[in-house]
Amino acid sequence: MAKNLAPQLETVFSARGITKVYHMGEVDVHALRGVDLDLYSGEFVVLLGPSGSGKSTLLNILGGLDSPSEGTITYRDKKLTSFDDAELTSYRRDHVGFVFQFYNLIPSLTARENVALITEISRNPMDPVEALKMVNLHERIDHFPAQMSGGEQQRVAIARAVAKRPAVLLCDEPTGALDVETGILVLDAIQRINEDLGTTTAVITHNAVIADMADRVIHLSGGHITGIEQNSTKKAAHELTW
Question: Is the pLDDT of residue 1 over 60?
Answer without folding.
Answer: no
